[in-house]
Amino acid sequence: MSLLLNNPEALKKMRDEIDTQVGNERLLEESDLSNLPHLQCVITEALRMYPTTPLLLPHESSQDCSVGGFHIPRGMMLLVNAYAVHRDPKVWEEPTKFMPERFEGGKGEGKLMLPFGMGRRRCPGEGLAMRVVGLALGTLIQCFEWEGIGKEEVDMTTQGSGLALAKAIPLEAMYRPRQSMLDALKKL
């Protein structure tokens, strides 16, 4: 939500997509998510920029090898820094800029994305997490008008080290029910 408040054009595009695909007679449902590609792009871009776990689970080198010119002996414990990989300028154009369109139409395919880990230790809850976040964020956008407090951008400074990455300053925002959604909200 913080990234969307700082990027009103992405927020408007997502709201327009939801209004077109779902309408305002009913609430967003899980079956709608596959018809909301911009919503999926926003979530993927947010996870690229701010992975919840910047350091992935440790892996152990099963044999001697070389990575990036460094010798890695067999048995060495390895940590992957997903935060750094997701912001590598050799891979991502303008890596610190929020650009959901970088994932439109499969454009981001083939680029290393690790918000849920990789290999055998990849998070088994990835599908569930993406659906829950999609439903939650999509419903918040569908049902409410959002705006930041004041004219300044939302501070995206993070804090934490190792296993978790959180915003240093909690999000403060104003919201109000969208007039077009009042009937649907009254049915809750």
Overview of the structural elements:
The chain is α+β, with helices and mostly antiparallel strands and 188 residues long. The chain has a single domain (2-54, 82-186), classed as Orthogonal Bundle (Cytochrome p450). The chain is built from six helices and eight strands. The strands form four sheets. The chain has a two-stranded antiparallel ribbon with strand order 1-4. The chain starts with a helix and ends with a helix. The model has no long low-confidence stretch (mean pLDDT 91).
**Strand order, largest beta sheet:** 1-4
Overall pLDDT: 91
CATH topology term: Cytochrome p450
- Low-pLDDT runs: none
H/E element string? HHHEEEEHHEEEEH
Level-2 CATH architecture = Orthogonal Bundle
Strand count: 8
Strand content: 5-15%
The helix content, as a percent range, equals: 25-40%
What's the CATH first level?
Mainly Alpha
Which of globular, elongated, flat, extended, rod-shaped describes the shape?
elongated
Give me the secondary-structure topology.
Blueprint: H1 2-6, H2 8-21, H3 37-49, E1 59-60, E2 65-67, E3 70-72, E4 77-78, H4 82-86, H5 126-143, E5 144-148, E6 158-159, E7 166-167, E8 173-177, H6 182-186
Antiparallel strand pairs: 1-4, 2-3, 5-8, 6-7
Top keywords for this entry?
two-stranded antiparallel sheet; Cytochrome p450; oxidoreductase activity, acting on paired donors, with incorporation or reduction of molecular oxygen; 188 residues; 13% strand; alpha+beta; oxidoreductase
Tell me briefly what this model is.
The protein has 188 residues and is an alpha+beta fold. It is 32% helix and 13% strand. It has a two-stranded antiparallel sheet.
